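Changelog note: in this version the structure field was regenerated for every chain. One regenerated record is shown below for reference.
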Amino acid sequence: MAKILYVGTSGSDDPTRAGLPFNFALGALDAGHQPEIFLAGEAACLSNTL
């Protein structure tokens, strides 16, 4: 089992790219890994829009 860090930098202006770290983390979780997501830059505003 590996720890994996996914970094998201795209905000709500590009929802496809903004969702990629979450989709990748779900896949890693299903594979038995320990994913974490770090939101930086424009992606930090995603938490205000959820």
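Spot check on this record: The chain has one domain: 3-49. The radius of gyration is 11 Å.
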